[in-house]
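Summary of Year 1 activities. Much of the first year was spent building the evaluation harness for sequence design. The harness presents a backbone, in tokenized form, and records the residue chosen at every position. We chose the following record to illustrate the format because it has been used consistently in internal testing since the harness was completed.
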């Protein structure tokens, strides 16, 4: 089994990175393959909205990391996406990446209705923010990230099997052993 991990946090030693690293280790302990991608390090030009990809099933922009990540998604059996909260949503780099890959995530039938291209694949979403619990959920901070990603993933055919939301990272910047264990246990929902 191959699991793709997309880390959209620019902080190499932040909570998202630590949570995803724990999940990566658990995947490898279960004799599965983990492919780890740091989204902020990718070179991805923004979508120009030409819609040509919908007909040609390829992006008209020169090849960059968007096409490589899309191929990794196609090759993966499951996905883990880590995204810190930026204004109640995912970081811009992650959104730009998904915008550029739309033709490989979701197709259309003859009436223009969406067709999921990754039906049956599972995904875990991990999000953090500085807003304390439970306000990170009530004020749609981490919940906003999860909601936005669920929308993209739903139309792509992914089944969200777990969403892990950690609030209050300013006051509690370190992960507890219980939180690390929670991340590791979540991996088993993908295997």
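For this record, the design step produced the sequence shown next.
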């Amino acid at each position: 089994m191959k699991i793709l991990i997309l880390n959209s946090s620019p902080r190499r030693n932040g909570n998202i990175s630590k949570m995803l690293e724990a999940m990566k280790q658990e995947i490898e302990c279960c004799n599965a393959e983990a492919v780890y991608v740091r989204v902020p390090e990718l070179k991805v030009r923004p979508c120009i909205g030409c819609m040509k990809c919908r007909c040609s099933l390829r992006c008209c922009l020169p090849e960059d990391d968007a096409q490589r990540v899309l191929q990794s998604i196609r090759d993966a059996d499951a996905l883990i996406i880590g995204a810190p909260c930026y204004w109640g949503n995912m970081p811009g780099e992650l959104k730009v990446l998904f915008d550029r890959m739309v033709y490989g995530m979701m197709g259309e039938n003859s009436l223009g209705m969406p067709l999921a291209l990754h039906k049956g694949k599972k995904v875990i979403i991990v999000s953090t923010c500085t807003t304390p619990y439970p306000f990170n959920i009530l004020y749609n901070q981490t919940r906003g990230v999860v909601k936005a990603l669920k929308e993209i993933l739903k139309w792509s055919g992914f089944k969200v099997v777990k969403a892990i939301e950690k609030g209050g990272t300013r006051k509690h910047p370190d992960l507890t052993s219980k939180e690390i264990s929670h991340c590791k246990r979540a991996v088993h929902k993908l295997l």
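The chain is about 40% helix and 20% strand. Quantitative recovery figures across the full test set are reported in Table 2.
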